[in-house]
Specification:
57% helix; Cyclin-like_dom; single chain; Cyclin A, domain 1; 301 residues; 4% strand; RNA polymerase II general transcription initiation factor activity; zinc ion binding; metal-binding; transcription; three-stranded antiparallel sheet
């Protein structure tokens, strides 16, 4: 069996007894460390002083001793340089993996290119600041994408990120609270139901009139606090469910739940609140969005 360097695949390996390392003589990579010196132990005796003037040329001051000291210092410096290069290589590998993961995530979520660039820049700042140490790598990359989406007003929900990364929602939420201040992203706008409705309606193949009706319903519901305490995803889903039936483009709650990532029960419970307040929510402005709009089209919860 021949010991080979994992980097250059060379077999010119030397044992540095001073540092206890196995070093590759070609590329200075540390192949092994903490090795035990199996040689017999010896001690250097201090030469006794004599009257002989020739004894002044002791081994401590001889050129041979100085060369040995210089050799040991060179080996120690080589070992430190090799370890530094290994650390830098590991840091570079971690950075590359994180950037590749962000790119794949942005492609899967179908977000514009500027968002990917912003997310990558966030991740580089996380690495440079050492904020990644001891943290979940997937949670960091997901949070960088989430911050970039918020910055560019292209909202994505925690549930969408959880589905892509398989990271628990609480871990992404905790990382978001940590990084938004550290990265100077505290001023990013909060996600609103209006932003979600545009994307959900497009995925549901609804006409523009249904989308406009859903947005108006959402605004009226906010003014009256009809869905107070509900998440933006729940508000958007319930308003789309009501608007689609109102303008005679009905979409089942089960289909909307798949697109929005919220349960069918949540949609119907929110719709009950909207239906109970329908006489005030469905103003003439809402009904004028589509000629087919009618309160009679609404399903009874």
């Amino acid at each position: 069996m021949t010991l080979m360097c994992p980097d250059c695949r060379g077999s010119n390996i030397m044992h540095s007894f001073a540092t206890g390392d196995l070093l590759c003589a070609d590329c200075n990579t540390v192949v092994g460390d903490r090795l035990i010196d199996s040689r017999s132990e010896w001690r250097r005796r201090r030469p006794q002083k004599t009257d002989d003037s020739n004894s002044d040329s002791s081994a401590a001051g001889s050129p041979r001793a100085e060369n040995g000291v210089n050799l040991l210092r060179a080996k120690k410096s080589t070992s430190r340089d090799a370890k530094t290069r290994a650390t830098e290589q590991r840091h570079g590998d971690t950075l590359d993996r994180g950037l590749e993961q962000i790119s794949a995530m942005c492609v899967a979520m179908d977000v514009p290119r500027p968002i990917e660039s912003a997310a990558c820049e966030y991740y580089r700042r996380v690495e440079a600041g050492g904020l990644h140490r001891g943290k979940n790598q997937d949670a960091i990359t997901a949070t960088c994408v989430f911050l970039a989406c918020r910055q560019h007003a292209v909202p994505r929900t925690f549930k969408e990120l959880c589905a892509l990364t398989r990271v628990p929602r609480k871990d992404i939420g905790r990382m978001f609270k940590l990084l938004k201040d550290k990265l100077g992203a505290a001023d990013t706008a909060a996600m609103s139901p209006d932003d979600l409705m545009t994307r959900y309606c497009a995925n549901l193949s609804l006409l523009e009139t249904a989308q406009d009706c859903a947005i108006l319903l959402g605004r009226m519901a906010r003014e009256r606090d009809t869905l107070a305490g509900k998440s933006p995803v729940s508000v958007a889903s319930a308003c789309i469910y009501m608007a689609s039936h109102l303008v005679a483009q009905p979409r089942d709650a089960r289909i909307i739940s798949r697109v929005a990532g919220v349960s069918e029960v949540t949609i119907k419970n929110s719709y009950k609140l909207l239906y109970a307040d329908r006489s005030l929510l469905l103003s003439s402005q809402v009904l004028a969005v589509d000629s087919a709009a009618s309160i009679d089209n609404l399903p009874i919860p």
